[in-house]
Specification:
The chain is mainly α and 106 residues long. It is built from three helices and no strands.
Length: 106
């Protein structure tokens, strides 16, 4: 079994479990805290960080491979890699802030 297929199956199962557990968190008891909101924000923040790490890792590995194949283009490749990594970091920071703001503004 390919690792990608395994990850897709795990992702689909995770989303399915989250959708099925939604009715359990539909109504808070009197005086209880909103645990589902905190759990959702933490899960979202984790996904943002994992996605950013995966994306930057792919950029780095592709850039190093490209530099080894064409050493004369290493400067241009490095510049493009740094710009792409900065864009991913910016999007990651925005997603992380959105997830964390859901903790404070329920």
């Amino acid at each position: 079994m390919k690792p990608v297929n395994k990850l897709v199956k795990i992702g689909v199962m995770t989303v399915g479990v989250m959708l099925l557990s939604t009715p359990a968190f539909a109504q808070d008891a009197a005086g209880s805290s909103s645990f589902s909101m905190n759990l959702g924000a933490a899960f979202g923040a984790g996904l943002v960080i994992v996605g950013a790490g995966f994306g930057i890792g792919r950029i780095g590995s592709s850039a190093v491979e490209s530099m080894s194949r064409q050493p004369e283009a290493a400067g241009n490749i490095q510049t493009a890699m740094i710009i792409s990594a900065a864009l991913i970091e910016g999007a990651t920071f925005f997603g992380l802030i959105v997830c964390l703001l859901t903790l404070f503004f329920k």
